[in-house]
Amino acid sequence: MTAVVLYCRPGFEKECGAEIQEKASWNEVYGYLELTKNQGIVYFHLNNSEEGEVLMQRIPLKRLIFTRQWFVTLTDKIDLPDYNRVEAIVESLGKEWQYADLRMETADTNDGKALSKFCRKLAVPLRQALRKEKILTEKHDNEGAVLHALFFSGSEVILGFSLGTNTSPHVMGIPRLKFPNQAPSRSTLKLDEAFLYFIPKDEWETRLTSGLNAVDLGAAPGGWTYQLVRRGMMVTSIDNGPMAESLMETGQVKHRMVDGFKYIPQKQNVHWLVCDMIEKPDRVAKLMAQWLLNGYCKEAMFNLKLPMKGRYAEVVKDLQILKDAFSEYNVKYELFAKHLYYDREEVTVHARLLSPVPIF
Ligand SMILES: C[S@@+](CC[C@H](N)C(=O)[O-])C[C@H]1O[C@@H](n2cnc3c(N)ncnc32)[C@H](O)[C@@H]1O
Predict the structure, then answer these.
(1) Where would I find the Ribosomal RNA large subunit methyltransferase M THUMP-like domain in this sequence (predicted)?
(2) How far apart are CA 255 and CA 236, in angstroms?
(3) Residue 143's pLDDT is what?
(4) Residues 6 or more apart from 60 whose CB is under 8 A from it?
(5) Of 8, 235, 260, 350, which one's alpha carbon is 20 to 30 angstroms from that of 109?
(6) Atom of ligand 1 lying closest to residue 259 CA
(7) Is the backbone peptide bond immediately before 356 cis, with ω within 30 degrees of 0?
(8) pLDDT, tens digit, for every residue of 6-47?
(9) Ligand 1 centre and the CA of 314: distance in Å?
(10) Per CATH, is 188-353 categorized as 3.40.50.150?
(11) CA-CA distance, 246 to 149, in Å (whole number)?
(12) CATH class of the structural domain 3-173
C-alpha cells in the first residue's frame, strides 16, 4: 500500500498528520494516518495508491507548516540482509525509473542519529551501484525525482521518491547551520534559518542588504538583532531586558526599553520588522497585521509561540487573523508559515504586502 511519509520535529506528529490529512482532503485525496509519538515520522496511507504523486504535485511543500520533508513510498519496509545490502536495495527498486539524487535518511531521534555514520558509509557503494544500473543519474537537476532511503536500523529501510520541484534541498529537510560565536543567544539560528528558508537567495541583494532599517521586537539579548547587524542593517531593538554590549558597540543598534505592543516607528523607512516576543500568538498576529497595513514596515518575520494543546488549530486561527486583516483592505500579500528546524514550541511566519494599501 502506498503512503506519503512526512518528517517533522519529534513530538509534532499529531500536528503534521492533522495538516496533511486536511490539505489532502481539499484535493480529494483520502487516507489514514499512522504515527508513533516522538519519532518525527508520519505515514499517510493512501486509499488510492496512485494519488501519492498527485498529492505531491498539488500541495507545495512550502504550504505544509509542520512537515520538513516528504516522499511517496516505492516499497514497504524492506528487511536487508547482513551482507549485500546494496544489491538488495538496487533489486527492490527495479529499473523502470531514474532519479536525479539520493537522500540517505533516518528519524530525527537519538536512535536515528546513531545510524547516520552507517548511512554515510553505505551511501558510497549504493550510489556507485545505482549509477551503474542507470537508476541514479545524479544530474542534480530540479526536474528529476529524488530517491529517498529512510533507514530504521542497519537492516530495515523504506524507499520512496519526492519531486525535485517540490522537495526540501536538505537531507531530512534539516539545514545544518553553524552557530556564530559572536552571537549573544542560540535564538540567532532561528532568524538565520528563516531568512534562508523564506527569502530566495537571488533576492538577498535587495531584501536582506546593508543599509536597510529594521525593528526587532522582544530583542534581548540580541540573537535576532545580530543577524540583522551582520547583514549591515540599522536596527532599533525593543526590549526591557539588556542587549549584548558587543552589538551596541557596532553603532548599528538603538536600544529602546519600551513595550513592543506600543512602539511605533517615527519614520516610515523600516524594511524589516522581526518579532520574537513571548506573547499570546493571536496578539502577535494582530500586531504584525497592523504594522504591515499601516506601512510601518515592508516585511515581517515573526514567531508564533504555540500552546501545549491544539497547536495546529492555534496556528490556523492566527494565520486567519492575518488573512482576514489583509482581505479587509483588499491587498495582495505573501504569507508563509513553517515549523523550522531551529524552532521549538513555535512556528515562524513571513508576511509582506504585494500591493499598496488603498487610501480611502
Ligand atoms: C525569546 S526572547 C527573545 C530572544 C531574542 N530574539 C534573541 O535572539 O536573543 C523574548 C524577549 O521578548 C521580550 N518581551 C516580551 N514581551 C515584550 C513586550 N511586550 N515588549 C517588549 N519585549 C517583550 C522579553 O523581555 C524577552 O527578552
Answers:
(1) 85-162
(2) 6
(3) 79
(4) 166
(5) 350
(6) 20
(7) no
(8) 999 999 999 999 999 999 999 999 999 999 999 999 999 999
(9) 21
(10) yes
(11) 45
(12) alpha beta
Q: Name the nearest CA neighbour of 305 among 350, 347, 274.
A: 347
- Find the radius of gyration of the CA atoms of the chain: 22
CA 270 to ligand 1 centroid distance, Å: 19
| pLDDT, position 70 | 98
% the chain with pLDDT above 70: 99
- Residue 325 annotated as lining a ligand binding site: no
Provide the grid cell at 320. Answer: 486567519
Tens digit of pLDDT for each residue in 226-236? 999 999 999 99
The answer to whether the CB of 254 falls within 8 A of the CB of 235 is: yes
Distance of CA 103 to the CA centre of its chain: 18
The confidence band for 194, taking pLDDT boundaries of 50, 70 and 90, is: very high
State mean pLDDT over 152-171.
96
Catalytic residue among 305, 309, 323, 332: 305
Determine the distance separating the centroid of ligand 1 and the alpha carbon of 255, expressed in angstroms. Answer: 13
Domain positions in the chain: 3-173, 188-353
Helices (H), ranges, 97-244:
110-114, 116-132, 188-198, 204-207, 223-230
CA distance 233 to 213: 6
Each residue's pLDDT tens digit, 44-102: 999 999 999 999 999 999 999 999 999 999 999 999 998 899 999 999 999 889 999 99
The answer to whether 259 is a known ligand-binding residue is yes
pLDDT at site 117 = 95
Ligand 1 atom with the shortest distance to the CA of 222: 9
b/e map 15-50, b = 16+ CB within 10 Å: bbbbbbbebbeeeebebebebeeebbbbbbebeeee
Burial class (CB in 10 A: 0-12, 13-18, 19+), 96: exposed
What's the pLDDT at 51? 95
Mutate to test the pocket of ligand 1, among 240, 253, 255, 275 (most ligand atoms within 8 A of CB): 240
For residue 360, the model assigns a pLDDT of 64
Instruction: Tell me, yes or no, if 305 is annotated catalytic.
Output: yes
Q: Which residue, judged by its Cα, is nearest atom 27 of ligand 1?
A: 220
